[in-house]
Amino acid sequence: MAAASFSFSLSTLSPYYNLIFTGLAFLVSALIFVLSTRSKSKRLRLPPGPPGWPVVGNLFQVARSGKPFFQYVRDIRLNYGPIFTLKMGTRTLIIISNPDLAYEALVEKGQFFANRPRETPTRAIFSDNKFTVNSAHYGPVWRSLRRNLVQGMLNSGRIKEFRHVRDLAMDRLIDRLRAEADSNDGLVWVLKNVRFAVFCILLSMCFGLEMEEKDIQWIDDMMKTVLITLDPRIDDFLPILSPFFSKQRKRSMQVREEQIRTILPFIEKRRSLLKNNPETSFAYLDTLFDLEIEGRKSRPTDTELVSLCSEFLNGGTDTTATALEWGIARLIENPEIQSKLYTEIKSKVGDRKVDEKDAEEMVYLNAVVKELLRKHPPTYFALTHAVTQPATLGGYDVPTDANVEIFLPAIAEDPSIWSEPEKFNPDRFATGKEDADITGVKGVKMLPFGGGRRICPGLGLGTVHVNLLLARMVQEFEWSLHPSQQKVDLSEKDAEEMVYLNAVVKELLRKHPPTYFALTHAVTQPATLGGYDVPCRRMPT
Ligand code: HEM
Fold first, then answer.
1. Residue 294: left (phi > 0), alpha (psi -120 to 50), or beta?
2. What is the mean pLDDT of residues 287-306?
3. Do 208 and 281 form a contact (C-beta atoms < 8 A)?
4. Which one, of 155, 153, 152, 131, lies nearest residue 142 by Cα?
5. Disulfide engineering: 69 pairs with which of 8, 168, 213, 347, CB 3.0-4.6 Å?
6. What is the DSSP letter of 105?
């Protein structure tokens, strides 16, 4: 779901530094809270962690480190081991970075670790008080919503029914890339284009309506605004400061109203389409209108429908686009892998367009995608889990109000389960020398879709999208670095931005230039661009 469950960065915090210190001086009532939590945690045997300050815990240590949160976690785990505690204001984070502990939590003790922590007030506004699959407590509402999503929409039969939608979106994506390259000296913005293609597919699956491009863009812009609004704020960790954030709360309410105003007309359109033409082809929304929720008499309200549709649209958009951007970057960095992949596609389909059935059967393609998801899980932290009742993990206590975070890169980098884990090497899977069950059921080696009872229900659809997009993009174009760049930027700063999807959207639009990759169009003869040789291998079909 759009992805990161928890994000925290210096830039998030620094503007509030003075405010917090001043605020704390006269918020004496906080002491009551401190005393009560301290006496409670004394009785618990929490995993070790850096000593924190009263009230704020480790909040400022993380901020002062000047590192992105994921980097702070990466470093600090060397001191505190595979399970440790960070106190972020009123929130207790228990961070796991070891496959056995992840297995213990998600599989062996899956029924206890299947909850979500309490939501921030902003998140509660957008989930309509935990009425989405992702946000719902582990209980009857979650069961009803998840069963409906999986059985009604994300099972393999249903996914196949929407094949024509994907084919159309792929053709449009290729056309857009080509047009952008033609008008821009061969440069294209991978993330933006792929994101839009996936968004179109999900939109069509959700509403089943013909939409004009301007409407699609309008909804997409709205969704991005929502993601930005959901960015964590300091008062999420220190609710006592919330009086200082009334402006931001007001803004959240406005964005929510805007979201409802944007989505509701399409819900109404679908309602009337179903009424006038009951034979019309199926859409996810149809399963929601009359959905019976365990333990509740009423059907979902209009605003709840808005939240559920938004969840569907957001769940697989940024995650898939992020995977693809990493994929293209890795292929540029490793031309021999790109070449091998192209050869496999060519020998499988000749000059015909590669389709998803072909993609399913291609051993090397599947190996590339698996290696991609191992090396670059689109979310660095599998979404935050919480326990339904006090539990233990690795011999430590886990209280019900703790956020349990699984730090996925640590598992991908673990030399005890992967040979040369730092290397991007699809052959590890293609040759069968190494393998992994990505659901984690048979043992945890990689968890790009999370695991246990809350495992991503879009695993099948997400995999189809990544496979098909990569296959089509490699079949149609040869990907190479623009001459203005010396090497592919695979720095973890980018990775961090990709994890924190809210930030990606914001940062990419505001600060960063598009990710520029050059497309080569000539094959019959070598070409030059800006005075440099452009390697040419084939003509786009
Ligand atoms: C490459 C694509 C995708 C990736 C990498 C991905 C990743 C994830 C991850 C890591 C989780 C957290 C699992 C956990 O809590 O342990 C998750 C949950 C979820 N994902 Fe995905 N996802 C993808 C595509 C999709 C798609 C296409 C949809 C729906 C259209 C979707 C809908 C959801 C939902 C609803 C949840 C919450 C499940 C629950 O709480 O029960 N995802 N996803």
1. beta
2. 95
3. yes
4. 131
5. 8
6. I
What is the average pLDDT score of the chain? 86
User: b vs e for 246-266, b when ≥16 Cβ sit within 10 Å of the residue's Cβ?
Assistant: eeebeebeebbeebbebbeeb
| Whether residue 505 has pLDDT greater than 50 | no
Q: Tell me the domains of the chain and their CATH numbers.
A: 75-503 (1.10.630.10)
pLDDT digits (tens, 9 = 90+) for 110-154: 999 999 998 889 999 999 999 999 999 999 999 999 999 999 999
- Residue type present at position 388: T
Question: Residue with structure tokens 């970057």?
Answer: 329
Residue 266 structure tokens: 């399409």
**What's the length of the chain?**
541
DSSP per residue over 8-24, as a string?
--HHHHGGGHHHHHHHH
Q: Which residues line ligand 1 (CB under 6 A)?
A: 1, 133-134, 146, 202, 311-312, 315-316, 319-320, 323, 378-379, 382-383, 448-451, 454-458, 461-462, 466
CA-based R_g, the chain, Å: 24
Closest by Cα among 316, 342, 32 to 149: 316
Query: CA angle, corner 156, sides to 152 and 159, nearest 5?
Result: 75
The residues that bridge with 189 in the sheet, in sequence order, are 516
Q: How far is the CA of 462 from the centre of ligand 1 (A)?
A: 9
Q: Which residue has the tokens 């709840």?
A: 304
Span from the CA of 365 to the centroid of ligand 1 (angstroms) = 22
Atom nearest to 455 CA in ligand 1: 13
336-355 confidence digits (pLDDT tens): 999 999 999 999 999 999 99
Residues β-bridged to residue 85: 94
Distance CA 378, CA 100 (A): 21
- Secondary structure element (H or E) that encloses residue 144, with its range: helix 140-149
pTM: 0.85
**Contact, 532 vs 483, CB < 8 A?**
yes
Residue 66 pLDDT: 87
The residue nearest atom 6 of ligand 1, judged by CA position, is 449
Contact 274, 286 (CB under 8 A): yes
What is the C-alpha separation between 54 and 75, in angstroms, rounded?
23
313 CA to centre of ligand 1 in angstroms: 11
What average pLDDT does range 74-87 have in this prediction? 94
